[in-house]
Specification:
Elements (H helix, E strand, L loop, with lengths): L6 H14 L11 H40 L4 H10 L6 H10 L1 H11 L1
Helix pairs in contact: 1-2, 2-4, 4-5
Length: 114
């Protein structure tokens, strides 16, 4: 009995990976084993960095809030502690946006907390 292989499915699987490797440099774009490794590594980086992106943005917001808070005579930690005690429901993303684009509104929040 002859050997039966599903070449259609295996070729489609390779073709799909090679499509993801389009635009890579050198053998990464046209050699199956190399491109498979490159694409899988890229997916690992993408998965990891979706988490890292959130961390980086939070760090950026904290830096912006701290800079604006210090201009208004209070440190970041004191500001966030007083915001928590005064039960103002505002997150760091919105606070950072106010600090950057609407300094008067940010100053009003700081004055209300003080």
């Amino acid at each position: 009995m002859p050997r039966s292989v599903n070449h259609v499915a295996s070729k489609a699987r390779r073709k799909k990976i090679m499509k993801y490797a389009k635009g890579y440099f050198g053998r990464r774009k046209n050699v199956w084993t190399v491109s498979k490794n490159a694409v899988e590594k890229g997916w690992l980086y993408a998965y990891r960095d979706r988490k890292v992106k959130k961390r980086e943005f939070r760090k950026l917001w904290i830096q912006r809030i701290n800079a604006a808070a210090r201009e208004n005579g209070i440190s970041y930690s004191q500001l966030m502690g007083k915001i928590g005690k005064s039960e103002i429901e505002i997150n760091r993303k919105v606070l950072a946006d106010l600090a950057m684009n609407h300094p008067a509104a940010f100053k009003a929040i700081v004055d209300q907390v003080k």
